[in-house]
Design a protein that fits this description.
One of its GO terms (molecular function) is ABC-type transporter activity. It is found in: Cell inner membrane. It is built from eight helices and 18 strands. The chain has 356 residues and is α+β, with helices and mostly antiparallel strands. It folds into two domains: 232 residues, P-loop containing nucleotide triphosphate hydrolases (Rossmann fold, 3-Layer(aba) Sandwich), CATH 3.40.50; 104 residues, Nucleic acid-binding proteins (OB fold (Dihydrolipoamide Acetyltransferase, E2P)). It has a six-stranded mixed sheet with strand order 6-7-8-3-9-10, sandwiched between helices. Strands 13-17-14-15-16 form a five-stranded antiparallel sheet, with no helix packed on it. The protein has a four-stranded antiparallel sheet with strand order 2-1-4-5, with helices on one face. A hairpin with a 4-residue loop joins strand 14 and strand 15. Helix 3 crosses helix 4. The structure holds adenosine-5'-triphosphate and magnesium ion.
């Protein structure tokens, strides 16, 4: 299958100045699960609303399944949406809630009931059909809201932070459920979140946005392994990637390309007990703080750069359970093969450094 949804140069201006979405290009394949990820205010909801037709597009084009969408009414776009604040009708049973969108379209009683049974089976709502929303758990309500959105067999499923009202355990559970449901149905899905774990675990590809612009599009692992710029590098991953100015690093270990301005290394890529002359940057550090997480710990380190320069702060993830102590001295090694390089504009430089 080729592209199913195609956005070309899609922009949204509110008033004359503020550009909430800036020239977004995105092609989505049929059946794909795309996560839109980015900080608050970066334009995720606005982009989704433009796709749904709830917000006119200021510039650019939107094509779905070969049809230009700009002038189509939201009702005629065959798109289902679930928002963070999905509203179920409190006075209606689950069954009536599910059937409502079909009733609005004048679909007969029998056909509605049949479809509601199918959707209830799919989402395991069968035993809840006669209950009202007040008698459901948060996760069950969320499933009903999704079920209602799916009743019409939409071409595209749009979700805007559908899990953000749920507690951490339920979110994890629903994350797996939604991903599983999406795969079973094979429905093309755009899923907005600012939770990177949701985006990384659920999506075939993630779209990272900042300030209205797309920063990178790719499979989660690729975005993690090869972030396109400093924004993506520090936005994806927790704790975030360490970023150093190249001029602050000891020059003797290897010669950096002259266009390198920043050097990054992820906390989990730092190696302890460095010894001998290995390619990369070695530091003697002092442990300033230890955060114990159970399976591993986060070490906050201060490294002296030698020549009387200010110390570098480094965050490292230590996997083994040998406790590090605050005040302890440690040798660390940033392997050349795990180092990320960025130029003056913050763009990734390829190829990475070669081992000598
Ligand atoms: N109706 C509007 N009028 C003017 N500005 C708006 C309007 N809707 C959104 N904006 C602005 O557009 C930008 C993008 O907003 P949007 O809601 O798309 O962000 P978001 O990425 O969904 O953020 P969040 O993660 O907080 O939901 C913000 O600066 C916001 O203030
Ligand atoms: Mg939003």
């Amino acid at each position: 299958m080729g592209e199913f949804v195609r956005l070309h140069g899609v922009s949204k201006r509110f008033g004359n100045i503020h550009t909430a979405v800036n020239s977004v290009d995105l092609c989505v394949k049929k059946g794909e699960f795309i996560a839109l990820l980015g900080p608050s205010g970066c334009g995720k909801t606005t982009l989704l609303r433009m796709i749904a037709g709830l917000e006119p597009i200021s510039a650019g084009s939107l094509v779905i399944d070969g049809e230009a969408m700009q002038d189509k009414h939201p009702r005629d776009r065959d798109i289902a949406m679930v928002f963070q604040n999905y509203a179920l009708y409190p006075h209606m049973t689950v069954r009536a809630n599910l059937e409502y969108p079909l009733k609005l379209r004048g679909i007969g009683r029998e056909a509605r009931a049949k479809r509601a049974d199918e959707i209830a089976a799919l989402l395991e709502l069968g035993t809840l059909l006669e209950r009202k929303p007040a008698a459901l758990s948060g996760g069950q309500r969320q499933r009903v809201a999704m079920g209602r959105a799916l009743m019409r067999n939409p071409k595209i499923f749009l979700m805007d932070e559908p899990l953000s009202n749920l507690d951490a355990r339920l979110r994890m559970h629903m994350r797996v459920e939604i991903a599983g449901l999406q795969r079973r149905l094979g429905i093309t899905t755009l899923y907005v979140t600012h939770d990177q774990i949701e985006a990384m675990t659920m999506a075939d590809r993630v779209v990272i946005m900042n300030a209205g612009r797309v920063q990178q599009i790719g499979p989660p692992q690729e975005v993690y392994d090869r972030p396109a710029n400093l924004f993506v590098a520090t936005f994806i991953g927790a704790p975030p990637m360490n970023v150093f100015r190249a001029v602050d690093l000891p020059a003797s270990v290897c010669s950096l390309r002259p266009d390198v301005v920043h050097v990054g290394v992820r906390p989990e890529d730092i190696v302890f007990d460095a010894e001998g002359d290995r390619p990369g940057f070695q530091f003697d550090c002092t442990v300033s703080l230890v955060e114990t997480l159970g399976a591993d710990s986060i070490l906050h380190l201060r490294a002296s750069t030698g020549h009387g320069e200010p110390e570098l702060s480094i965050i490292a993830r230590k996997r083994d359970n040998a406790r590090a102590l605050e005040g302890q001295r440690l040798g660390i090694w940033l392997p050349l093969s795990r180092i990320h390089l960025f130029d003056q504009s913050g763009s990734r430089i390829e190829p990475a450094l070669q081992e000598p």
